Sequence to fold (242 residues):
Amino acid sequence: MKKIKGQFAIAIVSIFLGIILALQFKTVTKTVGEGILPTQRAQQLAIELKKAQEERDAALKALNEAENKIAQYERGEADNNVYVENLYNDLEKYRALAGYVDLQGPGVIIEIYDPPVDVQYGIEYSIVDDIDLILQTISVLNAAQAEAISINDQRYTAYTEIVRAGDHIEVNGVSINSPIVIKAIGDPETLESALSIKRGIVWTLRFYDYTVNLIKDDNIVIPKYRKLIEFVYSQPVKEQVN
Fold:
């Protein structure tokens, strides 16, 4: 009787394992593709990614060329008319404020590296887990009159989102990861003092074992904001004439 029960138990376990293997095979086939090995699929995805990156770079190059031509036309018209020149100067100022112009000038660079892994306890954490520290850094720079800010070469504007997405951070819809490099244009002394104040943001980052390099630079380049913002629900308030 015990022998029969043992055989029955083995049969049940075998059936259960068979179902699991069948489901796993079906899942792999659906994910990878029938008749395609995982390594082949990985190579195929790598080729597609490279192609997409090349297409993106080509599109950005074409966009830059078009923007340069438009700027030349605008500048040419402005040179021939004082009124148009004033309009052009105002337009450039508002473009810079909105983040749609590449800017360069003196300022500071903050490099933030993840803490070392705690070998004894196996604890590992990243700046991805402390996005609020990045936001605090941006707030400090804004309070110190930074004129332009970028995070890993992504321009920070009023429309910039900084959100966690899995094991990385998305800024302006672009995935970034450690190290975080924040650049800010402004008075280098003022920016450095605001960041380095006792118990300030640099102190806090180092307190949590992040490696922080704070560098003053005379010529920082911050790229323009690439997203196009369209106002759908809001419109200017018209002034009423009494």
